[in-house]
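Input (structure):
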C-alpha cells in the first residue's frame, strides 16, 4: 500500500492509495490436460487439499485468506500451529462436493488427484463455479527444488505477498547451500528412498522433486534411472543396487518405525549393510513434497548422510 500526503484546509493529511492488483496468468496440468487461468484479484477464500499446500499458504501468512483445508499427512509445523487453528478443517480426507462449495472457495490447490470428478471436482466444473484451480509446477515429472522456488514466487504474486515469498525462497536456498557445504568434495552416498509396500516396494524414482531433494542433500538415488516421481520395483533390484543409506518416507502414526522393523526382517533387505548398521533417515511425506520444509529436510539428510550431526 502506498501513502500519499495531501493538503486539506491548510493541514497535512494522509491518503491511503492501494496499488492496483496486477493480473497473474498461470498454466498448469491436472495430469491429463493443460489449462490456463488468470487471476484478476487476490483470492480471499482459498481451499487446500493437501498438507504441503496448507503449509505453503500458511508460511506465506495467508491463514485469513483460507476458507478450509483437508488431508493432513503429518503434524503441522510447530511455527504454523497458531495460524493453522484459524483455518476450518473440512474433512480428514477429501470433503464432499457439498461441503467444498458451502465455504464458497475462490481458489483450490493440492495433489493432481484432488482435481478429479471422482474425488472433489474436475477443473472445468470448478471454474464454472467461480473457483480458480492451480496445480503447482513442482509436482510435475522432472521437477527440481528450483521449481519450488518458482512456485513460491508465483503464489506470492497470486496472493499479493511477493515480499514474503522472496524471503522464504532465500531461506530455502540458504539450507541447500549448507547441505552442499556438508557434502563438500565427498562422493555421493547411494540412497534407497522407501515409501511403502511389502509385497512390491514403492520407491522414490528419478524424475521428480523427491529425487532432486535427495541429490541436493548429496545422495545418489539408486533408482534415479527410472521414470516417474515414484515407481514400484523388485526386492531383488534393491539388493543388487546395495544402498548405503535408506530414507524412510514417514506418513505419521508410527509408520516410519513399522517400515524400519519390516525392512530389518524382510528376507531381501535384512542382510544389506545399510539395514544392519541402522543407516536410516526418516523424512515426512511433506518434507519430500513441495513445502516450506524442503530446505531443512535437505540439510537434515546431508547431515545424516555424512555424519555431521
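Output (sequence):
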Amino acid at each position: 500500500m502506498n501513502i500519499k500526503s495531501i493538503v486539506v484546509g491548510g493541514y497535512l493529511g494522509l491518503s491511503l492509495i492501494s496499488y492496483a492488483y496486477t493480473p497473474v496468468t498461470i498454466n498448469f496440468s491436472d495430469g491429463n490436460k493443460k489449462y490456463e487461468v488468470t487471476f484478476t484479484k487476490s483470492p480471499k477464500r482459498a481451499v487446500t487439499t493437501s498438507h504441503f499446500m496448507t503449509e505453503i499458504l500458511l508460511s506465506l501468512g495467508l491463514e485469513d485468506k483460507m476458507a478450509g483445508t483437508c488431508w493432513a499427512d503429518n503434524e503441522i509445523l510447530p511455527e504454523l500451529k497458531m495460524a493453522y487453528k484459524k483455518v476450518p478443517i473440512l474433512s480428514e480426507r477429501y470433503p464432499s462436493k457439498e461441503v467444498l462449495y458451502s465455504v464458497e472457495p475462490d481458489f483450490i490447490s493440492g495433489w493432481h488427484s484432488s482435481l478429479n470428478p471422482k474425488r472433489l471436482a474436475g477443473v472445468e466444473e470448478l471454474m464454472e463455479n467461480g473457483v480458480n484451480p492451480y496445480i503447482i509446477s513442482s509436482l510435475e515429472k522432472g521437477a527440481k527444488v528450483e521449481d519450488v522456488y518458482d512456485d513460491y514466487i508465483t503464489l506470492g504474486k497470486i496472493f499479493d505477498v511477493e515480499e514474503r515469498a522472496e524471503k522464504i525462497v532465500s531461506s530455502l536456498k540458504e539450507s541447500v547451500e549448507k547441505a552442499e557445504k556438508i557434502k563438500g568434495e565427498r562422493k555421493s552416498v547411494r540412497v534407497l528412498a522407501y515409501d511403502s509396500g511389502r509385497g512390491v516396494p514403492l520407491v522414490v524414482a528419478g524424475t521428480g522433486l523427491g529425487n532432486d531433494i535427495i541429490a541436493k542433500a548429496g545422495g545418489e538415488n539408486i533408482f534415479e534411472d527410472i521414470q516417474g516421481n515414484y515407481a514400484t520395483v523388485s526386492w531383488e533390484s534393491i539388493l543388487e543396487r546395495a544402498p548405503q543409506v535408506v530414507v524412510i518416507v514417514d506418513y505419521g502414526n508410527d509408520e516410519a518405525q513399522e517400515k524400519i522393523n519390516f525392512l530389518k526382517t524382510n528376507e531381501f533387505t535384512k542382510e544389506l549393510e545399510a539395514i544392519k548398521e541402522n543407516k536410516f533417515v526418516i523424512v515426512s511425506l511433506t518434507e519430500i513434497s513441495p513445502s516450506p520444509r524442503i530446505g531443512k529436510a535437505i540439510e537434515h539428510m546431508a547431515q545424516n548422510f555424512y555424519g555431521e550431526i
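Notes: The CA atoms of residues 77 and 105 lie 24 Å apart. The chain has two domains: 23-135, 183-305.
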